[in-house]
Amino acid sequence: MRLSDEEQAMLAGEMGAPKRWAIEHMMQVGRMFDAEDLVPVSQAHMMADPESVGEAGTAFMEEMASHPESERRVAIPMITDPRGVDLNYYRPLGQTEEMADLERRFIAACEKLGILMTNTCINYQTIMPPVRGDHVAYGDTGVVIYCNSACGARSNFEGGPSALAAGLTGRTPRYGLHLDRHRVATKRYVVREQPRGLTDWGVLGAVVGRLAGSYWEVPAIEGLDAVPTSDEMKHLGAAMASYGSTPLFHLIGITPEAPDAKSIGADKLDGEDITPEMMNAFRSDFGAKGDKVDVVVFAAPQLSLVEMQQVADLVGGRNIHAETAMMVCTSPSVYADATRMGLVARIEASGAKVLEGTCFYQQYAREIGEANGWKRLLSNSTKIVNILGGYGYAPALADMEACIDAAVAGVVQ
Amino acid sequence: MSIELKCHIGIGPDVEGEALVADDNFSARYDLDRIKGIFSRPQHKLAGQSYDGKILVLNTAKGGVASAWMLHEMKSRGIYPKAILFNTANTILAQGAALADMAMCDRFEAGDVTALINSGERVKVYPQKGLVIVKRE
């Protein structure tokens, strides 16, 4: 891999141990993916919840934070994905002091590096969306796929360590989605059932993701009769990335790199129909009609201000069933706005709880499930029902209105 | 008898171990009970099986950036696969292998690696050479 003089100095340790680690890390990863050099990036976004990071990752970050400020401080704006513990509300969830302490230690280390604790997976709706052609190093697969697809920015999936390396150096290995050749469509799909509502968009994303099936495939989708909203695009992308490890899709005639099929090479591909039968087959995997529901979750991705209003409107004036919990996860900035506008109060008057700066599946989902006796989980997030089966839950999928009806009745309607 | 399988240059140290193979995908977040060291997602083809000390052979990596930290966390507690071989890795698993110093390879010249290696076979992995040797009785 070619390194500039400044990068050679980082590798030699002349700019401190953290940057040396970062360059070494990027060279290992870059070599596996045939990167020829490093590309400057304008922002980094790090996923690092305490369940994933553990004691070992926390100690790793604390070691980074122990170096002199000039050596440890990040070189570009660096922000964070949702945390695993809402420090204002963790004991009632069954989270322990050990979990909270790990969270506090990790946050303290991040702050010493100059990382902005945004604690959000919807930074493209709330912080600073990247622009077309902007090279960035984002974590959270939902963030990456949205920013690549809807914004035309350029990022690979950057796990926490690689996002940190990018933050420390302002660079990332130039491979994958940073290169034009990996942004060309490789699969073409024709939508035969129009998605209506957030959950439908998630189902479409899941079906396409499963069919595409690899990080290195780029689906091009056509046949949509309307332009999706930002929230709909969010659910489409989050589900596609979750089920397919997909980092980029094109909506022909809609997303910025795909004004037409030819622009992305899709004119050379045969189209495969996404039929109502395929959508229904997916839905039937996550049905639960008539079952008692233990917990209803709105998260993955965190809710936008618009979604918060939708939840508040649907649940306002009603009471959540005594044997059912309802959790709503949003970013700290949306939480502040939603509090100011009375949305949090309206939601919580029902008995539901709004969590700030966390996302349900990232907050020790297995442990809080066991602590609260939660087994049957209902959500409108196609992504979260994919994840939580491995955490001991029996997840089911329904749209936002049906989720809230179930939370009130205590039973999936 | 030994079979040599060439692959792309990978990450991590040379290791030897027993293969655990499935034509299925992998995420440390979605699929594992990392405390017990088993595959926990009921739909996974290796559900209930231990991955500790094994050479995992799987199709591809799937969503979830958490795996990048989780391989490191798993290794720190001593319950971890010695190596993971994929048909195609994604960036997250490669980054996780780099932090954890865990062996990982992908892109095998002879085709589908989940069909080339059987569960229970002894496997040597040489990531820096892009080479995997399967000992077959």
CATH superfamily name of chain B? Answer: Phosphohistidine domain
Give average pLDDT of chain A, whole number: 97
Q: Which percent bin holds the helix content of chain A?
A: 40-55%
Mean of residue pLDDT values of chain B: 95
Shape descriptor of chain A: globular
CATH superfamily of the largest domain in chain A: Aconitase, domain 3
CATH topology annotation of the largest domain in chain A: Aconitase, domain 3
CATH class of the largest domain in chain A: Alpha Beta
| Helicity range of chain B | 10-25%
| CATH arch. level architecture of the largest domain in chain A | 2-Layer Sandwich
Would you tell me the structural class of the helices and strands of chain A? alpha/beta
What is the helix/strand order of chain B?
Answer: EEHEEEHEHEHEE
**Most extensive interface between two protein chains, with residue counts:** A-B, 50 and 42 residues
Number of strands of chain A: 14
The quaternary state of the protein chains shown equals heterodimer
Number of strands of chain B: 9
Backbone structural class of chain B: alpha/beta
Number of domains of chain B: 1
